[in-house]
Amino acid sequence: MQTFEESGINPLIIKAIKELGFEKPTPIQELTIPYLLDIKKDLVALAQTGTGKTAAFGLPILNQINTESGKTQVLILSPTRELCVQISNDIKNYSKYLNNIRIATLYGGAGIDKQIRELDSGCQITVGTPGRVLDLINRKKLKLQNIQYVVLDEADEMLDMGFKDDLDAILAATPEEKQSLLFSATMPPDIAKIAEKYMKNADEITVGEKNISAENVKHHFYLTKARDRFSALQRIIDAHPAIYGIIFCRTRRDTAEIADKLIENGYNAEALHGDLSQAQRDYVMNRFRIKHMQLLVATDVAARGLDVENLTHVIHYNIPEDPKIYIHRSGRTGRAGKKGTSITLLHSKEMFRLRDIEKQIGKKLNRKMIPEGKEICERQLFHLIDKVEKIEVDKDLIEPYMDVIYKKLSWLSREELVNHFVSVEFNRFLSYYKNAPDLNISENERERDSGDKNKKPKQRKANEEFSRFFINIGSKKKLSPTKLMGIINEQTRTRDIQIGRIDIMDSFSFFEVDTQYENEILSAFVDYKYKGMNVSVEISKEKKNDTSKPFKKKNFSKTKPDKRHKKR
Ligand code: AMP
User: Fold this and answer.
1) How far is the CA of 53 from the centre of ligand 1 (A)?
2) What is the distance between the alpha carbons of residues 69 and 145, in angstroms, rounded to a whole number?
3) What is the pLDDT of residue 542?
4) Which fold has domain 5-206?
5) Which of 81, 257, 319, 423 holds its CA 20 to 30 A away from the CA of 398?
6) What's the angle, vertex CA 227, arms to CA 467 and CA 369, rounded to 5?
7) Measured distance CA(115)–CA(103) in Å, rounded
8) Cβ neighbours around 292 below 10 Å, total
9) Where in the chain is the domain with CATH 3.30.70.330?
10) Which of 3, 6, 20, 93 to mutate to test the pocket of ligand 1 (most atoms within 8 A of CB)?
């Protein structure tokens, strides 16, 4: 299928999407639209975010819905409220010329009564987050007996966020006869299991890691010492005066801290993380979307619902441990035919992570040198000159002031005038970067630091800012560090919490977590069962460095937090 017209989709839907600027189908749409219009089998579609997935399932579903009936025929599940609202709005836009299409948007953190009223009024399509959808099913307000399509959007994210049990319960409640569609960026084993368990003989469509934008994204990295990370970030931003980008940080705390420092230093930046209320998040996202803000500092989870087309840069303040996260983040730039750059800040000991990412994306990340003061001043200067040259002048508005201005500046020659005016902006950067040191790591330092490039960093020592917890399960119950991290993420429903050292023993284990999340951890494990066993988690009284244990300990560390820059 080369065009939407030849797909046989209702011309009224095509009219609506043309108005949205959809000229021709994206690769995933080319494959899924004819499939879903023709074939009634279950389908697993693997494609990155931002590749046009919503229309890939939304258009053929809309085309086949029975608008005469108000019964719920479609259930779309997505991991976050933001994504849920976005899908719902997208489908409303595609169907704006169709009569009688009603869509319910069901997510937590908002009044349930309004959503119940929406459902009672008869909606053919429901879009929701797993928790709220399950709640409405249990209250018998969301009826599933007429469901013909179930869509799991960003299924990998839903699992990562700990919705596995909810998904199991929802899918088990849907009728046997239906078409299930699973959209995911990757195919981890859990997704494969869901596909196996709830889908019948599903076909698979993959557009690979080939994000529609991938060719437009340049991948750069900058090597610097951990303590210079923030200064390096500042220089990179200063060297790109027209930057419009997201800076990704690992934790909420880092996010808030980096944003605060940027604001203190006069940058047009704000933080987006899970500690903000929904209203605050909406406010920040909106300001960013309409470009009232140049830099958004965000955690992965908080940025999930943000749909912004024309980002010039994505900056990984810390290199992500999981290459999948790198791919997700980087896919946010270079969209809609525009060019973008994905920038990673790292120190030599993190080089092995770079290699993992390169393997996954099938591309090399190019090392760039952190610009020196002189280069930044030059770039700023030419940006200023360019702005001056291109600015639209409203003669009528400035006319009344010109006489006074001419008089005041009449003693300056043309050349002096240009010098003065350029210096207004330029002096700031000149004085800031005067005698600025080189922040790059030299080849010698790099070799010394990295040693064997495949060697993973040493374990982080137990740290004062981490609290140590005892959990009454261990390797006898097949608990592994990865499994434990997964359980913590799932129970707390976030990946924002920094996990430190993990010690797995035979019948119990210890793990460290960022102290600020102590209460969250304790409450997350109330009533938690592991393989049918009641699990108890408590703050450990064991001394962190007590090595005189009669049992064999296995130590692991998920993260190697570097807090040195915070002291700057
Ligand atoms: P999605 O993956 O559904 O979030 O889509 C990513 C972005 O691509 C959204 O802003 C869509 O509006 C846009 N989009 C989807 N399909 C097309 C298309 N065929 N042509 C142009 N833009 C599209």
Assistant:
1) 7
2) 13
3) 62
4) Rossmann fold (3.40.50)
5) 423
6) 135
7) 11
8) 10
9) 466-565
10) 20
Residue 209: predicted pLDDT: 47
Query: Is the CB of residue 331 below 6 angstroms from any atom belonging to ligand 1?
Result: no
User: What global pTM score does this model have?
Assistant: 0.49
Contacts of 305 (CB under 8 A, 6+ apart): 80, 81, 82, 83, 85, 86, 285
Q: Whose CA is nearest to atom 21 of ligand 1?
A: 22
Please give the backbone phi and psi of residue 271, each rounded to the nearest 5 degrees, phi first: -100, 145
pLDDT tens digits, residue range 495-520?
A: 567 777 888 888 899 988 888 788 88
Site to substitute for ligand 1 among 31, 51, 309, 310, most atoms within 8 A of C-beta: 51
Burial of 160 (0-12, 13-18, 19+ CB in 10 A): buried
> Could you tell me the strand order of the sheet in which 340-346 lies?
269-272, 295-298, 245-248, 313-316, 340-346, 217-223, 366-367
Architecture of domain 466-565: 2-Layer Sandwich (3.30)
| CB 78 near ligand 1, within 6 Å | no
Whether the CB of 304 sits within 6 Å of ligand 1: no
Alpha helices in 178-277 (DSSP H): 189-198, 229-238, 252-264
Rounded CA separation 557/537 (Å): 19
Confidence grade of residue 547 (pLDDT, cut at 50, 70, 90): very low
Strand ranges in 47-131 using DSSP code E only, listed in sequence order = 74-77, 103-106, 125-128
Q: In the structure encoding, which two tokens stand for residue 38, read together?
A: 């023709």
CATH 3.40.50.300 residue window(s) in the chain: 5-206
Could you tell me which residues are beta bridge partners of residue 46? 184, 206
335 CA to middle of ligand 1, Å?
A: 9
